[in-house]
Amino acid sequence: MFGSYRIDRLIGKGSYGQVYLVNDIGTPDYFALKVEHNESARNSLTNEINELEQLQESPYFPKLVTHGILFNSQYYIMELLGSSVAAMRSELDTKRFSRYTTLFIVTEMLKCIKVLHQKGFIHRDIKPSNFLLRPGKNNPICLIDFGLSVSYIDPSTNEHLPFRNDIGFVGSKRYASVNAHERNQLSRRDDMLSWFYSCVELYTGDLPWSNTNVSETIYNLKKNINPPELCSGMPSEFTEIYRRIRDLRYEDCPPYDYILRLLVNLLNNSRKSSQVLDWEYFSDERIALISAVQLNEKEDQEQNYGICRI
Predict the structure, then answer these.
(1) For the whole model, what pTM was predicted?
(2) pLDDT single digits (tens) 21-36
(3) Is 74 exposed, middle or buried (0-12, 13-18, 19+ CB in 10 A)?
(4) Residue 151's closest CA among 141, 161, 143?
């Protein structure tokens, strides 16, 4: 039990907390409960809550229901979402999404990032496991996990924060930008580079540095790889997208709309062969093994996201 909620099971965990599937007792409604691991995680969870409160008008982020402190642990409760993009890819026999599904996902991921940046924040840990699936095709991707996220706007001047170096590594080694490896202050361009590395992995099934966990090796591969090599096996548009992102300066606003136009054109061309997302072929039983909610909603099926109390 957690307040007026019955804890069903653990559905996720990370360095700062655990996520549980919970039922609002006396109702059919289910939610996700995130609880801090310990006192040292409190600042991270507080940061997540503060940021989520400022993102509630957008459908690209989870709906925050309530938050507080219970049993001396900080928590928040949000809408229940499905599996991550990374977990869904791992469930596929080929470990790769179809062309249409990949283009659909990376387009929606970029829309999330664009809105986050427009709200004045950078995420600093963009990767497939931080995007969760929502049932249906209306706003089907949500960006989560804002423990490392910060504002890139100086509140005293309302201008972009000045560049700094030697701030320490932030992010995940596989997807972090060269700037992150060099311990430089991150900006919007670095979220975009992490998004692009995610695109490469989702489209090709791998990254050139996937087989090593040595930071220096990963850094050298990222720093020295040329665009055609990184984008091998991908549509030529991705080489152009990578060049545009790579050439961004610290304070530059990324060309979101230009990139989205390229992706939408690719997506429209892919629709000629299939408009079915890969998980829509899965049975309800298979979905239930990897997702806390059914992703393939039937017309007469209604998800229970009711009013939550603590």
Answers:
(1) 0.92
(2) 999 999 999 999 999 8
(3) buried
(4) 161
Highest mean pLDDT out of 33-42, 64-73, 299-308: 64-73
Q: Tell me what percent of the residues of the chain surpass a pLDDT of 70.
A: 92
- Asked if residue 157 and residue 142 are part of one domain, the reply reads yes
**Token pair in block for residue 138:** 């209306």
125 is catalytic: yes
CA–CA gap between residue 219 and residue 244 (Å, rounded): 20
Do 29 and 106 share a domain, yes or no? no
Structure tokens at 170: 């932030």
CB 20, CB 35: distance < 8 Å: yes
Q: Any binding-site annotation on 95?
A: no
| Domain-terminating residue out of 80, 99, 124 | 80
Domain range holding 52?
5-80
Residue 55 domain-assigned (yes or no): yes
Split at pLDDT 50, 70, 90, the class of 297 is low
Q: Total structural domains in the chain?
A: 2
Q: Are residues 34 and 114 in the same domain?
A: no
For residue 183, being part of any structural domain is answered with: yes
Claim to verify: residue 215 and residue 137 sit in the same structural domain: yes
CA nearest to 277, candidates 82, 130, 11:
82
Among residues 8, 24, 93, 125, the one annotated as catalytic is 125
User: Which of 53, 80, 107 represents a domain boundary (last residue)?
Assistant: 80
For residue 302, give every residue at least 6 positions away whose Cβ sits within 8 Å of its Cβ, in sequence order, or none. Answer: none
pLDDT in tens, 174-189: 999 999 999 999 999 9
| CA 101 from centroid of its chain's CA atoms | 16
Asked whether residue 46 is domain-assigned, the answer is yes
End-to-end CA, the chain: 11
